[in-house]
Amino acid sequence: MSHTFCCPHCQQPIDLETSFVQGVEKQLARKYNDHFARQKSDLARREEALRQDRLLVQQQTQAQQNLIQEAVTAQVRRIQIEARQKARAEQDAVITQLQQDLTEKSATVQSLQQQELALLKQQRDLEEKQASLALSVEKKLRDERAAIETKAIQKAQEDHLFHAEQQQGLINALTQQLTEMKRKIEQGSQQIQGEVQEIALEKLLTDTFPFDQIVEVAKGVNGADLIQEVCNDYGRICGRIVYESKRTKTFGGNWIDKLKSDQQRHSGDIAVLVTETMPTGMPRFGLVEGVWVCSFTEVRALATVLRMGVLKVSEVQTASENKGDKMQRLYDYLTGNEFQQCVQSIVRSFQQLQLGLAQEKRAMKRIWAIREKQIDAVIDSTTCMVGAISGIAEGVILELPELELLSDDTPEVLT
């Protein structure tokens, strides 16, 4: 059966089956395109909604973080304020208690003074009564009057003396308490500063003389602050250097005598007083009544020289046992002006060497830094030149492992 027919207008043959299929295909294509457009539009709307949701979540998260940060900041500020208020309240309570104690003591003193005035008034009244009684019965009771007057005067004097002593004792006790409070308050910061210098001195001696034994005298025990037990190369104790650390505004008058007593107590060979304030007329270290006095900056050099002296004395003592006269002369030399001048000269030279070494270190560091910059500049220039040549050679890479090794092995400047 034929599916073609002729067009009545153009007389062209038309295939019915082909025309029907093309119409169906066009209709399906139009429906598919409409469906695809709707899905694409829905997908775009969903993506926009998702983007809006994500932006909202980010804003909410940022807002929560800001709230948390503000809460933490407020909590820290509140804790700081409470801590300051608590410290201020405790301090005010202590001051109030001290003022209250002082007020009570002052009231007690005033009360005693009033009692003394009353007793004096009673004494005057009693004397007047005794005088009146004596005038009325003078002839008859002369002997009794003399005895009564003497006894009354003695009693009044005893009472007056007793109350005066009691009042003076109370005043002295109050004055002593106030002085002790003031001394403790002032001593607090000075004691802390002294302990800091003592700890620094112990660390300095331990680091400088690692083979010696640096012994700290316990707090509350009579004695010096530190004892350096000088040991030779074989670990044998050859002598002791006794140290006392002071960090006050004035030089104490009895420090020397006390340190000499501590030196005898610890069987020390040499005593060293490390003080922040030097004695009057003594700008640098020196020997004062057999005790070496120096500042903290001078103690390292002085201790080094004194330690050498102790080791030398020990060697001479070991080699010259039973030779008391030589040992006495050697001791006189170590405690004399000549040895003091030698020690001062050695310490000054040691300090100059330290200063020169520090200057040389700084100069070498500057030179090394300059050299490193120059080497880096040479390496950078060489690398740029190799790169330029490789570019001109159109992709030919120059292999220079020595240049890479030089760049990797450049030493760092010591700091």
UniProtKB/TrEMBL annotation:
Coiled coil: 95-132, 164-191
Keywords, in A-Z order: Coiled coil
Taxonomic superkingdom: Bacteria
Pfam families in alphabetical order: DUF2130
Tagged with keyword Coiled coil: yes
Alphabetical list of InterPro entries matching this protein: DUF2130 (IPR019219)
Designated name of the protein: DUF2130 domain-containing protein
